[in-house]
Amino acid sequence: xxxxxxxxxxxxxxxxxxxxxxxxxxxxxxxxxxxxxxxxxxxxxxxxxxxxxxxxxxxxxxxxxxxxxxxxxxxxxxxxxxxxxxxxxxxxxxxxxxxxxxxxxxxxxxxxxxxxxxxxxxxxxxxxxxxxxxxxxxxxxxxxxxxxxxxxxxxxxxxxxxxxxxxxxxxxxxxxxxxxxxxxxxxxxxxxxxxxxxxxxxxxxxxxxxxxxxxxxxxxxxxxxxxxxxxxxxxxxxxxxxxxxxxxxxxxxxxxxxxxxxxxxxxxxxxxxxxxxxxxxxxxxxxxxxxxxxxxxxxxxxxxxxx
Length: 307
Description:
Elements: H1 11-14, H2 31-38, H3 44-55, H4 57-61, H5 65-72, H6 76-85, H7 91-103, H8 119-140, H9 143-155, E1 158-163, H10 168-180, E2 185-188, H11 191-199, E3 205-210, H12 217-228, E4 232-238, E5 250-254, H13 264-286, H14 288-303
Parallel strand pairs: 1-2, 1-3, 3-4, 4-5
Helix pairs in contact: 5-6, 8-13, 9-13, 10-13, 11-12, 13-14
């Protein structure tokens, strides 16, 4: 009997919450990036599939699911579930997506910094990495999930935003942006206050947790407590399986790549800010008259702060 690791994994278990697998075979962007981001949390059989695809993407385009099954020594069902775990409908969509990516590679190549780089090179690499993080995030951010997030926030009596460490400034910026359009919102960046506040939520509260790794104890605990108390939970996290997704009603994915010098605290912030911008824009457009009126009033208030 095959081991648990080698048995096919169900779609529900492998597909992150808030992100449904695609229902057609149209190519998706950045299939290889999706695989790289999700690979660390995969079971051994899925990691074998991932490694084979990452090493030989051009070969996959010409292979059948049976041939890949034999090459990786896993079942055909495991391959189909692998494809669905990264948001694809199946092996055919995987092949089409890889074919597109091979023919039309991403515009900027991911590069790490080197100690011998001059400042011009440093600037080019850092800016290109930021642009790449935005391109990658756009490829995994689901409009349907963002629509659900807008509806959830609009229906809430109060919004709480959780963030720790490098995510704390993003949480505070999100609070500021939501205040500008008239929402009752507060950012909670102290872990103890997070736990207390989350435990006192109810069905009239929506929470937004910002966590690149999705594995920070404090924010995972706050999200869990909020959901158990009846709140609707939205999570902004990097594309991959992570503990926090088990407690999320809606997941908004970013995709930022880590290197030796440029860790997730750098490019992930750019991606997170853009996701927040899209969410704020959706909220403002959904209640256009009230949002624009509140923006004008808050602008007038803030004008008193300027000379």
